[in-house]
Amino acid sequence: LQGAFIEHIHVLDTLRSTEHISEIIEVRTKAELDRIDALIIPGGESTSIALIAERCGILDDLRAFVQTKPTWGTCAGLILLAKNAIHTKKGGQKLLDALPVTVSRNQFGRQVDSFTINLASPCLGADAAPFNYVFIRAPAIVSVDDPEVEPLVQLPPGHGQTEESENGLLVAVKYRKMLGTSFHPELTNDNRWHQYFVRMALGTA
């Protein structure tokens, strides 16, 4: 609908042969949504994505899909997936009301405040090399609202810090068949997060 979907497709293409991906399609209609087994909601502008989905008549279909099918929200997609969002635009915004976390929109500031950071990520493998995380006007998870939510990546203190997050902000979580990340893995040359999601969708992660 809107956002960095082409970049996600390019990364998924690198995994097509090794991870048994049969088809990669862009989703803009209910018919296309009905064809897929898993969904990535890309970074972009969460309010715009929700408005376009509503105008296309698939917002409610998306809400139903994410409750039962593997779904990954990156950056704006994380905001859309969440049950709660703060620091939204005036009047609030529509959410898919699925991932039981509270997300702070633009937690790290404006475009000029974008940054990258290398972090160890045990969820990508016990001996995995650090991943280069890219944050662009990124949200952060400021509250986990269900004990089933599994924290995956936490920033060291000092990045987008708030009093509520003195130990470092969460930027990746897993909940049932949902994955939510604040960062943009599609803007790197590293396909490990996409591999993680594909294997999660296939039930092998």
Roughly how many Å apart are the termini?
28 Å
Instruction: Report strand order across the widest sheet.
Output: 1-2-10-9-8
Number of strands: 10
Measured as a percent range, the helix fraction is: 25-40%
Task: Please report the number of helical segments.
Answer: 6
Order of secondary-structure elements = HHEHHEHEEEEEEEEH
* Mean pLDDT, all residues: 88
Contiguous uncertain segments of 5+ residues: none
In terms of DSSP E residues, the strand content is: 15-25%
User: Main β-sheet, in a few words?
Assistant: 5 strands, mixed
The assigned structural class equals: alpha/beta
What shape does the CA trace take? globular
State Rg.
Answer: 16 Å
Structural write-up:
The protein is an alpha/beta fold. Helix content is 25%, strand content 23%. It is built from six helices and ten strands, in the order ααβααβαββββββββα. It has helices at 5-13, 30-35, 46-55, 59-68, 76-81, 192-202; strands at 39-41, 71-74, 82-86, 99-104, 115-119, 131-135, 140-144, 150-154, 170-175, 178-181. The strands form three sheets. Strands 1-2-10-9-8 form a five-stranded mixed β-sheet. It has a three-stranded mixed β-sheet with strand order 3-4-7. The chain has a two-stranded antiparallel sheet with strand order 5-6. A hairpin with a 2-residue loop joins β9 and β10.
